[in-house]
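--- STAGE predict ---
source: upstream dedup step, 1 unique chain passed
mode: sequence only
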Amino acid sequence: MRIAWVLYGSLEQRTGGTIYDAEVVRGLERAGEDVQVVSLDEAASEDALAERLRAIAPEVIVGDELCFRQLAAAYQSLGRESKPPPLRVLLVHHLTAWETELAPEVRRAALSAEKEAIDASDRIVATSRTTRERLLAEGAPRVDIDVVLPGADRLTREPTREREQGEEVRFAFVGSIVPRKRVLELVRAFAGGAHESGRLTLVGSTTRDDAYVGEVRDAIARLGLGGRVLMTGEVDETGVSRALADADVLVMPSSLEGYGIAATEAIYAGVPVIAARAQGLGEALAPCPDGAMFADDEAALAAALARFATDAPLRAVMIAAARAAAPRMPTWAACAEQFRRCLGRAPA
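--- STAGE serialize ---
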């Protein structure tokens, strides 16, 4: 198949959505498919994408849903012009309109444009069953919504450290420092009890929302956590592997996750997870119930962090469960092969 894969920016970005795109593209290429990546600037005109796709003349287009404005126009245009048109696939991690931290007018505008992109697509691929169910509940087409779960085995499995008695408990967060990830709430919750016997490392991009990163830094300083909270910025795959190997637990308090790749990568590395029961995270952690603890608001998160920091038997149970569950986690090879089968199947 000749496939055009559309996304904002480069496949080298280290967000969960782009990691998914990059792993599937590599898997398709290994299987012999001809994949041409179409990298868009977010400010690209709505006609620019259609022009680039006409030049490629793909049999299949896979569009990352974040590009919904350009994809809606391009899919509509190509559907009118081509006989038969290329298979137009929309890859949905989650909808922008679902991000409650955005201003209401931004969410309303996104919802309208995202509906156009959905309606213009021949097939939707969701990265979790949870996302599929929500799309259906909100009126998306009730046919051709496939679910292709992300893998968990991307990172090198570093030897996990063995804690010495009395050693501080190490908490880690992996993800961009943006409001949806609720990092500010995490810092305040950490200050609520876990900071006296723990250390928190925030691993992820600090360049996506300068104002929010400033709030997080101010909170760290105001709460006197400068010696207990480290913000590393974005690191490469080796850096993430080492951060997980050094951690006793990963904390993911996000308000919304399409799935939760960081959580499954932690379990694959043998590291338990404390998470909000947000969309996607419950599903991602289902293979390892004893290695996960859920906390849905800031007070519950503070209690969970404090309990993990002070309850050695609980830590031992959760760590053992995560290590035992690692072989059950999904693989990227299976993800890419399932995605390939979805693209090869004729639309209903």
